[in-house]
């Protein structure tokens, strides 16, 4: 069951061009906030926040 408005680790990995393993590492390191509901689920806003935190201004 997928929750509406949430992304899976696989979706985020494809979006960011990273491996699923790396996304799970980032979740463990608390660089990407996620909730575990059977599997890790990530809000799109959290992905945007992660991307923005990595930008060089």
Describe this structure in words.
The structure is a single chain. By secondary structure, the protein is of the alpha+beta class. The protein has a domain at 1-38. It has helices at residues 9-16, 20-28, 44-54, and strands spanning 7-8, 35-37, 39-42. It has a three-stranded antiparallel beta sheet. Helix 1 (9-16) packs across helix 2. It is globular, with a radius of gyration of 11 Å.
Q: What's this model, at a glance?
A:
With 57 residues, the chain is α+β, with helices and mostly antiparallel strands. The protein is built from 3 helices and 3 strands, in the order βααββα. It has helices at 9-16, 20-28, 44-54, and strands spanning 7-8, 35-37, 39-42.
Topology overview:
Layout: E1 7-8, H1 9-16, H2 20-28, E2 35-37, E3 39-42, H3 44-54
Antiparallel strand pairs: 1-3, 2-3
Strand arrangement in the largest pleated sheet: 1-3-2
Radius of gyration: 11 Å
Runs in which pLDDT lies below 50 for 5 or more consecutive residues are none
Number of helices, where a helix is a run of at least 4 consecutive DSSP H or I residues: 3
Strand coverage percent: 15-25%
**How many E-type strands?**
3
Distance between the termini: 39 Å
The ordered string of helix (H) and strand (E) elements is: EHHEEH
How much is the average pLDDT? 92
Tell me about the largest β-sheet. Answer: 3 strands, antiparallel
- Global outline: globular
Key features?
three-stranded antiparallel beta sheet; alpha+beta; 57 residues
